[in-house]
Design brief:
There is one protein chain. The chain has about 210 residues and is an all-alpha fold. It contains eleven helices and no strands. Helix 5 crosses helix 10, helix 8 packs across helix 11 and helix 9 packs across helix 11. The chain is rod-shaped.
Length: about 210
Amino acid sequence: MPSTPAHAPEPPSQTPEALLSAALAGSSEALGTLMQSCRTYLLVTSKRELGTDLQVKVSPSDLVQETFAEGQRAMGGFAGSTPEEFYAWLRGIMLNKLAHARRRYLATAARNLHREERRPDHSSIAAQAELVVDHETPSKRAMRKETAEAVNSALARLPDHFRRVIKLRNFALLPFAEIALAMHRSEHDLRALWVRAMQRLKRELDDIDHR
């Protein structure tokens, strides 16, 4: 009796070409198998395109699942004839969803900043500055004349990008990743910018104290 080869060849019915042909003929099972065959490729692509900023808001695996669901609904519009064209088509669907997610979170960050600028809570500004700017002697600092007006005046003298990152981080309480996205910076650069902005704000407050 002949022995079975250690690595049997893949059944012809399971090749990408055969699966695509069956999917185009209306087989939902073949379509699902074909999609699963490129899951790893789409996950790697989604993680790279999302970056660390959006991954805190959008799960790569969820994005791939949404892509598969959209692909199943839109399969009738697929005009290709090869597995490579099918994979590129799916990737396009995923990138469109990713772009939509990016626009949505940018808009959310912008609205948060707009609300903060329209309705500044000066007492909150003073409290946040008290907590973040000076950790050396909080009880002594609390008794000094760091009023809301003084903090607001110090903020007004900061460069726009310093003032914006402080408002988004310390007053709107947004995470660094979301602020980086809104300000079109890497998260590493954004954190460094925030540190410089807080140092500058502290100097401005100290100048007010010594007048």
